[in-house]
Amino acid sequence: MRKITLFSAVLFIAFISSAFSQKNVDFIYKYSSSGNPVKYFYTQNIHETLDIQGQTMDVYVSSVLGCNVKSEGNQNNIVTLSITIDTLAEVVDSPQGIMGGGIAEVEGKSFIMSIKGNGKLSDISGAKNFTYSVPGQGQNNLSVTFTDFFPVLPEGKVNPGYTWTTADTVSNETGMSSQVTILNAENKFEGFEEAEGMNCAKITSVTVEQVI
Amino acid sequence: MKNEVQGMSMQTSGNFTGTSTVWFSPAAGYFVKSASTTRMTGNVVMPNEGYSFPVVMDIVETNEIRK
Questions:
Q1: Is the CB of A202 less than 8 angstroms away from the CB of B27?
Q2: Which of A43, A119, A155, B40 could form an S-S bond across to B16 if both were Cys, CB 3.0 to 4.6 Å?
Q3: How many structural domains comprise chain A?
Q4: pLDDT tens for residues B11-63?
């Protein structure tokens, strides 16, 4: 009986230890500097409805971006990243016709940017200097795309159920546009879930942004 | 947001509300997937032409790793 009790106690401690280590998460970006880079495929679809003097006009904007991300080093909680563009395309479909298309000139080209350990932007100048021409639209750069490419995570060790707020103001300027975004978000670490075959921490956010 | 479309200056402003989900691998140290849906309601102003009209934008974004 004592053996069974002791065995149960050991099992219980092992279970508690396992559950504790599973729950307590330190969210830190640490892309690998050796081995294969991480490949991302980003898509954005916008349906814009304009009401022009009682007449509705629909505009559809589709963008895709494929890129490889690799670490160039990590120092003082700053992760320097090398980003190589695989694919970039932008198409605008409006009553005036279809504009844009694939942007072949950027394929295979790289730039350097840096983020803090929790994903907050540290230096976006490399993306800002990465310029390209959008057919029928003009000169653009990658700063808008990469300003919020890496989701900002909570700092320190946190458990599922943890909630936090994010408040930030971001300015962006490309050859085609300039904008100031005031961001507020309520975030929650929901727990663990498998994604793309990996054990992941799932974070949900409700966002309110004002664009000026 | 200020931009120029086919030679015309445009100013778009408004409020975006939405939800997003991120899946982050603590072991690997990077995000594996993100998805968001956002709705913007605001106005587009063409100052040189003297036009102003309401706009609604629905934005769907996904970003995921490819192995």
A1: no
A2: B40
A3: 1
A4: 888 999 999 999 999 999 999 999 999 999 999 998 888 888 999 999 999 99
CB contact under 8 A, A203 and B56: no
Q: Read off the pTM.
A: 0.86
- In the numeric block, which tokens belong to residue A185? 């978000």
> Could you give phi then psi for residue A3, rounded to 5 degrees?
-60, -40
Domain containing A86: what range? 2-211
Q: Look up residue A98 and give its two tokens.
A: 């279809």
Of residues B21, B48, B8, B5, the one with CA closest to residue A48: B5
CA–CA dist B27, B50 (Å, integer): 55
Dihedral sign from CA coordinates of A46, A49, A50, A55: positive
Question: Which tokens hold the place of A18?
Answer: 């396992």
**ipTM here:** 0.88
Closest by Cβ to A211, choosing from B16, B30, B54 = B16
For the beta carbon of residue A22, count every other beta carbon within 10 angstroms.
14
d(CA A162, CA A159): 6
Residue partners of A76: CB distance under 8 A and separation at least 6 = none
Residue B37 β-bridge partners: B19, B60
pLDDT over 80 at A186, yes or no:
yes
Q: Which residue of B has its CA nearest to A53?
A: B53
**A199·B61 Cβ contact <8 A:** no
Chain A residues with beta carbon closer than 8 angstroms to that of B54: 50-51
Complete DSSP assignment for A102-162: E-GGGTT-EEEEEEETTS-EEE-HHHHT-EEEETTTEEEESHHHHHSSS----SSEE-TT-
Q: Which residue of chain A is at minimal alpha-carbon distance from B16?
A: A209
Reported as a pLDDT band with limits 50, 70 and 90, residue A19 is: very low
